[in-house]
Design brief:
The complex is a heterodimer of chains A (433) and B (330). With 433 residues, chain A is α/β, with parallel strands linked by helices. Chain A has 16 helices and 8 strands. Chain A has a domain of 220 residues: Spore Coat Polysaccharide Biosynthesis Protein SpsA, Chain A (Alpha-Beta Complex). Chain B has 330 residues and is an alpha+beta fold. Chain B has 3 domains: 86 residues, Arc Repressor Mutant, subunit A, CATH 1.10.10; 70 residues, no CATH class; 122 residues, 2-Layer Sandwich (Alpha-Beta Plaits). In chain B, the strands form 6 sheets. Chain B has a 5-stranded mixed β-sheet, sandwiched between helices. In chain B, strands 7-6-11-12 form a 4-stranded antiparallel β-sheet, with no helix packed on it. The relative contact order of chain B is 0.12. The mean pLDDT of chain B is 89. Classes of the chains: A alpha/beta (433), B alpha+beta (330).
Amino acid sequence: MISGYLDYLFSYLEWGTLSQMPRVLGMMLTSADPYFWLLFLIMLRMTLPAVVLWGVNLLRPAALLPPGAEAAPRLPLVSVLIAGRNVAETIVPTIRSALSCGYPNLEVIFVDDHSSDDSVLQARTLERTGRVRVFGADAHTGKPGSLNVAMALARGEYLFVLDADSEVQHGAIPSMLAHFGDPKVGAVAANLRVRNALENWITRFQECEYALNVSVSRLWRGKLGLLSILPGAGSMFRASALRAMGGYDSGLGDDTDLTLRLRKLGWRLGFAPDAVVWTDVPNTFSWLLRQRSRWTRNMVKIRLHKHGDLYHPGRFGLSNAMVFADLFLLRVLLPFLALAGVVVYTAMEPLAHPLMLTGLYWVVIFLLLARLLVAHDLLRTPGLARLWLVPFYPFYRLPIRVAEGISILRELLRIQLWHPYVPRRIWERIPHW
Amino acid sequence: MIEVDQKRYIDVLRRSQSSGGEMRPIWNPRSDRGYVYDSALEHQEHEMLWRDLKNLADLDYLEQDFFNRLTRCPSCGSHHLSVREVCVSCHGPNLHSVPLLHHFRCGYVGPIHAYGKDDHGHRICPKCHGTLEHLGTDHDHPGENWSCRSCESSFQVPDVEALCLSCGTTHAGANLVHEDVFSFRLSSLGAAALRHGRLFDSDQEQLVEEGTPIYRRSIFLSLIEDERRRRRRYAIPFGLVIVRPDAEDADDEDVFAMARRLAPKLRDSDKIGRLDRAHLLLLFPSTDAAGIEIALSRLISPDLRSAAVAVREGDDTVALLAAARARVTR
């Protein structure tokens, strides 16, 4: 009995199971079982926007073009705000990239969050350019506090928030400014690309993820007014909008929180695919898991707890309700249901649906390949040389999904809410969402 | 040394002796240097006295001690300077500094004047309208920001610039000229010169103090430098020991007696030198740390205090000797 069951499990590893894919697809589409429809809907939601985007790009490419440079305000002062702690190795290249990105009227403000290394000294070497100001905070205040200090010092009409380990590509600032020709636009997200993609297989996978979840996803979300996050690594804000809100709130998830607060106030958010900001991603799996775990906790904390009222269409509009619903279904409910279903159907009832897991695997691979090809066709990322990673992608995602699931449960059950990202003395004073 | 200089130097030593053995600078803003050693002297006489004091210190008749540091204009040498913070952009001095406050609860950071006050005098956060009660517990002061009223620049660290009130030029703080001001004390050699009524000019006298085996301070310092160079080039170690009589009120005679007692116990190649009136130095060429320990055990006696001086590569000899002197001084 046991050996038979093991044979069944190992049968998933046989290449011949690829031939089962049409059968599995047919079974899913014709089955009356709601679980299959759930899986089908997830796949549809993940793939359809990218495919539609690709279709629009084929038939009406003008619809996807960003606003032209003529729409941009005429060379306003842009303040580049960088907050960092112990970033001595990266801060100088980051500031240099901002200074040399081809925009003439900018100032760079670096706020050092009480580093123990020589970040301040390194940054001060660039102060003589006359366009860089460095502020060394007397105490560790966390990233939101440091960015608020930078905001208090900034004189620009537009504030470009940048991570201390990022690089701005030439021409990025005018591309973002072009969106501000529309007075209702409050902020614009830059297109984040992975700088250290070639470092190892972990960073290569992340390049694929960024292409799908950052570049392509934000492109269609930006067009539909459904952008739900302005990345802290590279976003530009209308200074008056940010100042009116009093800047960042203390605590975790500063960028998500700010995005949702801007949405609540009715500001439009844009995405500038041409404004490329290169950023470093985690190069070890443990670091990656910690990062994703923190992001997931932020998501629950900020999106579900702090801004849970967004779901009400009567209060903050339909688009905000859609953003909320999409996030809740896609990031919280469906992963748990899907995982539970796979476990139940493959482990508990192996004979009822033979080879279902294998079939699903190939379906996922096929759809992923389609999405990556769309991303490459639209935005030239990731490179085609990265496509060999596709068959391994589910195995890369599985531990991340598990870590995210644990983080969601932790936040929902409110277990150990504090995160070292926020200094303890500040944590004790802020509302715990 | 010509006769006139000899006579003037002896006069200076005498003047030093009559003022308690020490000539201390007196601040005088009307003088060109900003200080004088004798307020009764005219400008030219004082310049002469200043040079004589320096020369006598170089010749070991006086010991010089750091007194203070004076800043001068690099253009005209005047000490009439107005040193102030200036704008990093326009170099204007019309600045004001604004402390920033950070409210923990909502994260708001703004200049202190952006926070209003309630009836009890507590500051109110303009963002969340919460009350700021205790600095450090619910709000802090991340730093201070300077603003320029002329060009509206803002910065955390202003430039420092000096305006010379004599010639009207302005100079960055880093370009100012600094002058160390010293007080001068009569050395044992100076006291001996006074007793003999002459400076010690013969070849032998220029090496060692008259009638003693003690090398003059400047000569001994150059011997130490020679040993350091030898160690660096050929890895030949050397040892240095500081000694002084145990009695706090030891006079020149006690020091000479100590030197005479030590001299027979030393090897031919070892040397005794002067550090200051109460302290002598012993130089042990080709001697490692273990050898110094042995030498110290032989030299130790209840009527003197001694300590080995570790001279490492890159150390400043004069600063090292000052630290060693502090170790053997109670």
